[in-house]
Structures are given as structure tokens and as C-alpha cells.
Amino acid sequence: MQKQTSLPPAVDVLIVGAGPQALAMASRLMLGPEAMADVIPPQESYVRRPKDVRSHLKKLRKSMDRFAVVDENGKWMERWRNQFKALEISHLRSHEMMHPDAFDHSTLSVWAHANKRNDFLFLENLPKKQSYHGPFVLPSSQMMLDFCKSLVKLGRLDDHLWHARAESMRPSGSGMCVTVKTASGRSQDIHAKRVVVARGPTWRRQWPGFYYNLDTAAVAAIYHAWDLFDTPAEMKSLHGRGLIVGGGLTSAHLCAQLAPRGRVDLLLRRDRRVKQYDLGLHWMGTGRRDCRREYESSPLEKRMAIQKEVRDGGSITPELDAVISDLETKGQVHLHEWTEVVSASFDPSTSSWTVALNTNEVLEADYLICATGALVDVASDPLLGTLQEIHPLKLHGGLPVLSESLQWGRLPVHLMGNLAALELGPDAVNMAGAARGALRISKALAVAGLLEGPHKSENQVGNMGNQESRGRTGKNAKTEGHGKEY
Ligand SMILES: Cc1cc2nc3c(=O)[nH]c(=O)nc-3n(C[C@H](O)[C@H](O)[C@H](O)COP(=O)(O)OP(=O)(O)OC[C@H]3O[C@@H](n4cnc5c(N)ncnc54)[C@H](O)[C@@H]3O)c2cc1C
Hints:
By secondary structure, the chain is α/β, with parallel strands linked by helices. It has helices spanning 20-31, 50-56, 78-86, 107-114, 141-154, 216-221, 232-236, 249-258, 288-296, 300-311, 318-329, 385-390, 421-424, 431-447, 474-477; strands spanning 10-16, 67-71, 120-122, 137-139, 161-172, 175-182, 187-197, 223-224, 242-245, 264-267, 333-336, 341-347, 352-357, 362-365, 367-370, 395-396, 399-400, 413-415. The chain has 15 helices and 18 strands. The longest helix has 17 residues, at 431-447. Flavin-adenine dinucleotide (FAD) binds next to α1, β2, α3, β5 and α8. InterPro entries: FAD/NAD-bd_sf.
């Protein structure tokens, strides 16, 4: 499809969002049956031969004709780029096999090799053990962006992207009518046979309890970490003594960046948790297929419990922990465990905060940031709330109970990311979840006749089953068994 200046009135597939989740979906639309059948990465070795991956990386693709992507930022990966830039994150937390390309797990590393890139971080802190033997390599944030840029170019995906915000949707015939607001402020309806919602977690903020008792001046002055992503000027304006609420990666990156400008107090509602990946290592190691099997065969209540246990709230990596510890030693960061804000007030005349804590301490600060994550509540979601009225789904903890293909009941709408967590598991929001989500949705699109069904190409050896192969050789890759696709 040659890019038209105006949005098309009707498409087969409309994707809302142009982040890594949407890119994983677009990659499947581009590759059709050539996409990999098993999205759980091997621990060592590879599934497809490097020479096949290299030729995949040279092939200009012709994606399905009638698909469009709308993003309120107007560019592929823009929110991700801003997020990593604002927080000055040098390397991803996820490893080299996790990326949006659906051809093979090794595509990013093969691309890096072909482009003489070696800006990986080698994980020194991760013990090589029976239950986990790799990957041990994290790509840099810039590498991920450059890699994604090349995927967009190969798939001519800019021709499918429009700068617009999806505002609402309703069933229309056998499809959906989605109302979008374009960058110029004009409203337009797009009729789509299928809609894939990949808005990411950052469009909706979770605030701690004290926020709801703030007066108007304080509400105007407080930041949610995500307010800082798309506005670098705002980030630069923060100086003096800071107070940050949160215990995850975002809060720690903010601390590392802001502490040199003035002392930062970091408030954690529990103790400090340090782990390499945001999921426990057993979810990434040799038992990873068993973890998935257990999750997917569990009733919903148990899935919620597994989610809670596995994600275990916010945590930071050992590398970031070392940075924070160093700042603590220098007296630039003060970390308060088991501490919550009871009340906060903002004095506009001095532009300063007074914050009372549950430890009876009172802190003064020049700025206050809540790095408290995403609110998930489909019932009050402006885009999906109408669907819930027309075709109510069961909700658990605000999450919808979707079908196996992440579909909203019988409506032709599929959800990716954190909203699909009851189906996809605790890493739904990450790139691992993106790969699994895109696979499941592509199967439904194939059944609907909108995409050629997945099949194993000659060169795709198949999934690793429980046999982990050794070494990076094609010979070993051929010893792999078959298992259920997840
Ligand atoms: C500090 C930090 C570090 C992380 N590190 C990793 C990591 O290393 N590896 C990993 O896998 N995950 C990581 N994550 C998780 C990360 O959020 C997700 O992997 C990723 O951003 C989610 O991709 P996405 O496409 O769902 O969301 P996004 O990247 O947020 O993209 C969603 C897009 O949707 C658009 N949008 C939103 N609403 C609308 C609308 N109504 N209409 C049109 N467009 C809309 C937005 O403009 C945005 O471009 C990290 C998260 C954080 C906060």
C-alpha cells in the first residue's frame, strides 16, 4: 500500500500504537507463514541458520496491503525512545533474544554482527547454573532502536503509520468503527475488520493514595514519572532536593540521573529488591516451558496469584543497585524502605513540598515524582469501556478475561501487552509478551482469512522442546524436538 496523505477509511487490520508490541504484530503481518512458530527463545544456540537470518535481514518485504497503524506520537518506537532517553537507560533489561522481529530469536544478534555492533552488556552477576545457562547478553538501548528502525525500513512500515490518537470504538457490521483524532485535531472514523490494541502501559498512570487528597496547586506540581518521558525540557528543569516514590527500575534510573543535581530521597513501600530480570530466573531458564504450562492450565484466581508472586512488584537490576549504593555512600541518595507518604502539601509561593511519612518523619523537597507504574482498569478505560458495556467480559483485578487469541469475546478486537496478562502471563508487558501475543493474534487473523496461516518453513527447525542444544552451530540446532507452542 503506497502511503496516502489521509487516513484510509477502511482497512483489514488497524493497530493502535506503534511501540515494540505493535512492531511485533506488524512483523507477523509482514512475514505471514515465514514467521517463527515457537516464540520461546532457546537458552543457547539458535533455531534458524544465521545465513537464513542474514538473508531475511536483506529482504524488502511487502506487507499485507490493507493494514494501518495509528500512534499519538506519530513515529515508530517514539514513546520507547523517549522513555529510555529520559531515564538515560544505557542497556535493556531483557536479553538479546527478546525483540520485535518474528523471523527468529537470533535476528537482533545476527543484525548486530552484520553491522559490526558490539554495544552489548555482558552480565557478570548472573551465575551459570543447571537451571539457567543463558542468554547473558543485553543489547544497548540505541542498538534496539537502530535494529527496530531497520525492521521498519525493511517492511516499509512508515507507509502504514498515521499520526493519530484512537479515541473510541464501536462494532460496525462484522468489523469495528474506530474514531481517531488526527494530529491536526480532526476526527475521523476508520472501519477495520480487526483491531489490535497495543497502547503500552504508559498511557494511564497509577497514583499512590495520598495523591487523591492533594489540592489543585499540588496536583499541578506533582509529576508522575511518565510525564517526564515525552518532555525532555521538564526533566532538565528538575533541580534541588528531590523526593521519588517507587521501588522499580524507573524510580532507580530517575534517582541515578537526578542525585547529582541535589539530594534525592527514594521512598520504597517495602524492602529493596534486586534481580536481573523482572521475572524470576526460573521463568527464563530450563524450566520456562513448565512455568508457562502451569500458568496456562491454572484457573484465573491462581493466574492472578502467580502474576503477583512472579512480578513481585518493582525491582532493580544488580548493575543499577551498584549505582544507587554508590550514590548512597556519597550521601546523594537516601533510600527509605517500608516507607509511605501519609500526606503532602505544596507551597506555590516557595515552590516546595512538605511530605509527612508513615515513619513520622517529615521531608522537604523541591520536586516530587511518583514512579508508581500503570493503572489497569478496563471498566473505566475510555477506549475499551464502551466494549465492556456492549459486550461485558469478566474482569479480574481490572484485567479482562480474553480468549486464547487475546480477542474481546466475539468482537473483532485483540489486546496486546499488560491488558492481556491473564492469558499471556507475568511478562505480557515486555517484549517476550509481545512475541507471544503477536503469534496468538496472527493465528486468529489467519482463521479470519486476513493473513496466510503460519506454517513451518523448510529452514525453521522448530522449537527447542525440553532439549536444550549446546553451542551456536547449525548442527546442534537440528537436534531440537517439538513441543506445544506458547
Ligand atoms: C524503565 C523501563 C525499562 C524497561 N525495559 C524493558 C526491557 O528492557 N525489555 C522489555 O521487554 N521491556 C521493558 N520495559 C517494558 C516496556 O514498557 C515495554 O517493553 C514496552 O514499552 C511496551 O511496548 P508497547 O508497545 O506496549 O508500549 P509503548 O512503547 O509505550 O508504545 C505504545 C504506543 O502506543 C501509543 N498510544 C497510546 N495510546 C494511544 C492511543 N489511544 N491512540 C494511538 N496511539 C496510542 C503511544 O504513543 C506509544 O507510542 C521497560 C519499561 C520501563 C518503564
